[in-house]
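HUMAN: Can I see a protein plus its fold?

ASSISTANT:
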Amino acid sequence: MKKINFRRFFGLAILTLLLGCVEPYELKNEGTEFVIVIEGFISDEFKNHEVKVSSASDLESSGINNINNADVSIMAGNGDRYDFFHTGEGVYRSFNPFRAEEGQTYQLEVIHDGVTYLSDNEQIYGMAEIGDIETSRLTNDEGAAGIAISVTSNSENDVQFYRYEYSETYKIVAPYTSGYKLIVDEDVQNVTIVDAPEERKVCYNTIESVAAILQSSRFRDNQGELENVIRFLPVSDMRIRHRYSLLIKQYLISPDAYNFYETLEELSGSQNVFSQNQPGFLKGNIEAVNGDNLALGYFEVASSDEKRIFVDPMEYFNVTDFPEPNEYCSLVWPGVPMRADSPDPLVGYIQSGEYQFVGDRNSEYADMIDIGPDTPLGPYILANISCVDCRTIGTTVQPEFWIEDE
């Protein structure tokens, strides 16, 4: 299993393809040669697909410039044509939603500054469905206990390459609760305590995967099933402190696409992929059809499937297995100014936006702070704002797909 950070690699123009054939490229040292970088991917999902177009004009640096004035389209073998419009930052989106059909070929066309770039004709390589998603308690190589989420796939006989992405959503419960908050009067640099009636305790956050996961089914069990660990979350990860959900997206890709992505990982350690120390220049499946401009990139067509799972961490761990709030939340008790003209430490904490009120000197939190006997203490106790107001790391709007109990 390999994890590939496509965004970072494409951003560095590390776009290569390993097909058993390397085409040597004689680099020019002027450092001003134009290289177009094209990222294209469509699937059988009915949606508005996107293509990213950028350039690297200095081969001695990893700088990337977005191209915002290209003409982008995808042509199907049956004569259908899908045009794209520029949305900003070099991203082009199809005017109309469409899906890739099995048995149909597709070709990407990008025109920029009078030069036409065409991809090879690509098509869906095969169809596969995500099998069972399983969760288990495991200990990783570093000795950390956690929850592993695995997926099994049953595919057609000749199909053996997969790319996975995921979207994780988790419930956040602020460990410290207060019905009040502190605000600063900027004119007089005074702090006032006011009601905080808004919901701040329970939130939800969603994170999209950055690194895609590659898997080959060359090695499968006797039942023809491939098991792949998509996510491992140690018990110390606050994302599994409460309820957690993972949406797994599986793309069934061609051997050429798999080799292309695999080579990205091999070349990622090079500071300059255009270095003369490279044995040759490796290209993808896109090239200029008029002119000598260099094209880097890959146009991919894939079938897809997705499935969501919910995880209750208490099925695998006890409450005592999780970190205590004081292990990741800092409680502070600002002192009082030593002189009338001295700045108030409390004002500084609130203005920083990093702390907020949890209680006063008579609250339970006072016993949780180790303070010297002669320390002049102020009236209020504070905590990291994310431990008081979950809206700083999530939203109080529950996702439509969320299921609290199954």
Summary: Residues 2-125+256-302 form one domain.
